[in-house]
Design a protein that fits this description.
Elements: E1 25-26, E2 51-55, H1 88-100, E3 105-109, H2 119-127, E4 138-143, H3 148-158, E5 162-166, H4 172-179, H5 185-198, E6 204-209, H6 218-225, E7 231-236, H7 254-264, E8 267-270, E9 280-284, E10 290-294, E11 307-310, E12 315-317, E13 325-327, H8 329-332, H9 345-357, H10 363-372, H11 383-386
Parallel strand pairs: 1-13, 2-3, 2-11, 3-4, 4-5, 5-6, 6-7, 7-10
Antiparallel strand pairs: 8-9, 9-10, 11-12, 12-13
């Protein structure tokens, strides 16, 4: 007879299958009046349009459990065909219209953006754009860093200003477990070092913190990057999308992160670079640089959010947690089946201004009401689809 006590295991949380938002969206109407706006556009809460995040591919070579878990994005998952993606010319045309309305910063993201061929050509095309007063946009990219060492110099030469690299652990075992494809952390660190060396800086490193998974890596990450000129940012584990099995008890509030670091390396707060910045900035008292914390769960920043997100096949989303998009590809391409021709630049600009001016999104501020049942909960678009 086996008298060994049974071992209690926590219940396994299965990721929730995604809702395919790639084929469900609203075709924007084009206003009859298409004159160039006399001022920058603002939404119904007075928030200006300043940042545009462009996802260039839905593919990624990592399967991070909080973003593209294997249980959902496995070998049988159907990614978009190349013909369905916006071309670089279509992306550039859309970006030009957004800049006329106030966008000053463009971030390329994914999926993993460097998996799409010839990214340096897109960067060069976007680099030629100018604001109404003649300034180029700030061009940035978020990448997992896996092939950054090979691409950094060509991206810099094409006009990219800086990169943000996602890195959730320094410990190789923890990192391989989190990316779930057995990718070594050394290659990502090499990409970060190369990006800094070629001038894609200040390089930022983003760490998504999950309580009980990689929170023991907070201080090692601080020790690795403190004093290097690289800005380390800690992101609260968010309920972006539906497939990552998110639960609140895995969220480590940013204040606990700051307190932990402060006990070892005293910190003091810094002012934001500009209104609408997502990260709260903290500097080391001894001059060792700065860190940032992004607290969309514990401290919502919806009130100053100035970001629009464009998916790889032309859906415009007004919030990271949005439940539907606006089909800009329908305006950018002809569609004989629907009897549509491409709209003019003025019409495209007017349609975008109309969409933004009606924006009321503030999901993070309403999260608690949805959790309590006071407000209905909607299925959100996946973070891997529109970029974090």
């Amino acid at each position: 007879m086996n008298d060994t006590e049974p071992v209690a295991h926590p219940p396994v949380r299965q990721p929730i299958p995604i809702v395919d938002h790639r084929h469900a969206s609203i075709v924007p109407s084009v206003p009859k009046q298409v004159s160039k706006p006399a001022r920058l556009v603002a939404d119904r809460m007075g928030r200006p349009l300043h940042d545009l995040r462009i996802s260039v591919t839905d593919r990624c070579n990592f399967r991070c459990t909080y973003c593209m878990p294997k249980e959902v994005f496995g070998k049988e998952h159907a990614f978009l065909a190349h013909r369905d993606l916006l071309s670089f010319e279509e992306i550039t045309r859309a970006a030009r219209a957004f800049m006329d309305l106030g966008v000053r910063k463009i971030r390329l993201t994914g999926g993993e953006p460097l998996l799409r061929k010839s990214q340096e050509r897109l960067v060069a095309m976007l680099h030629t754009l100018r604001t109404p007063d003649g300034h180029p946009p700030e061009l940035t990219m978020t990448t997992n860093g896996s092939i950054l060492a090979r691409k950094a110099q060509t991206l810099k030469d094409a006009g990219l200003d800086r990169v943000t690299v996602s890195l959730d652990a320094l410990d190789d075992t923890v990192f391989r477990r989190m990316n779930d494809v057995d990718f070594p952390v050394a290659e990502v660190l090499r990409g970060i070092e190369t990006a800094q060396a070629v001038g894609l800086g200040p390089v930022k490193v983003n760490m998504v913190v999950k309580r009980g998974t990689n929170d023991a890596q907070i201080l090692p990450m601080v020790e690795r990057f403190r004093g290097t000129g690289i800005v380390l940012r800690f992101i609260e584990y968010m309920d972006a999308g539906n497939s990552n099995g998110w639960c609140m008890n895995e969220v480590l509030p940013s204040q606990e992160v700051v307190d932990q670091i402060h006990r070892h390396h005293p910190l003091h707060p810094l002012e934001a670079h500009r209104p609408g910045e997502t990260a709260q900035r903290w500097a080391f008292d001894d001059g060792g640089g700065e860190i940032g914390v992004i607290s969309s769960v514990s401290r919502a920043f919806c009130g100053t959010c100035s970001r629009a997100r464009l998916s790889m096949e032309g859906k415009l989303y007004l919030c990271l947690f949005a439940s539907h998009g606006h089909d800009l590809r329908a305006l950018l391409r002809d569609s004989p089946q629907a009897g549509r021709d491409p709209v003019s630049d003025a019409q495209l600009r007017a349609a975008l201004a109309q969409i933004w001016s009606r924006r009321v999104d503030r999901y993070s501020e309403l999260r608690a009401f949805q959790a309590s049942g006071a407000l209905p909960s909607e299925r959100k678009v996946e973070m891997s689809y529109i970029g974090g």
